[in-house]
Amino acid sequence: MPADLSNEKRALRAELRERRRIMPSTERDAATVALTENLERLATDLGARSVAAYLSRPEEPDIRPFVHWAHDRGIRVLLPVSREDGLLDWAPYDGGEEALDPYGMPAPTSELLSPMAISEVELILAPAACVDSRGMRMGWGRGYFDKTLGSMEKRPPVYAVLFDSELVDEVPSEVHDQRVDGVVRPSGILTF
């Protein structure tokens, strides 16, 4: 990766982390309610019976209420577990205990499935630092979701979950970066 691009991504990620860090709790709580409604609508409109999601970290848009909602309605939810080789294993959400994976990411403690398990889902919800108006997603720099999405032969709709201010004009991108089909924000759902 060229040094300029690496520095540009690093600076943008730092700015976005700081915005998330200083977000008032009332704004964060309102965003969670609106995101949950929009995620429920997206899953319902797509008729999704299985979803790949993730367990939000405290600074991320909180999708845990959606994960609970989907599980309570019999929608199969797969959650990622980071591996040392840069791939993601998947585990079904069972409403049970959580742990931290080796990289400090929240992960379920249920049965571990292979990276191929994601090929069975009908909707993928991906974390993101930001997404641009072309659907180019920028993650947090580890490349797990880019590798996963790039390796899928047939992939279902992929939506990044963002706060409203994280839909930007342009994201610095490289060949391996993967686009998403849309974004879910507190203000609504946008499909590219």
TrEMBL record:
Cofactor: Mg(2+)
Keywords: ATP-binding, Ligase, Magnesium, Metal-binding, Nucleotide-binding
Catalytic activity: (6S)-5-formyl-5,6,7,8-tetrahydrofolate + ATP = (6R)-5,10-methenyltetrahydrofolate + ADP + phosphate
Residues of the signal peptide: none
Domain of life, per lineage: Bacteria
GO molecular function, one term: 5-formyltetrahydrofolate cyclo-ligase activity
InterPro entries for the chain: FTHF_cligase, FTHF_cligase-like_sf, NagB/RpiA_transferase-like
Keyword hit for Lipoprotein: no
Gene3D superfamilies given in the database record: NagB/RpiA/CoA transferase-like
Enzyme Commission code(s) on record: 6.3.3.2
NCBIfam families reported for this sequence: MTHFS_bact
Family statement: Belongs to the 5-formyltetrahydrofolate cyclo-ligase family.
Protein name per UniProt: 5-formyltetrahydrofolate cyclo-ligase
Organism whose genome encodes this protein: Lysobacter korlensis
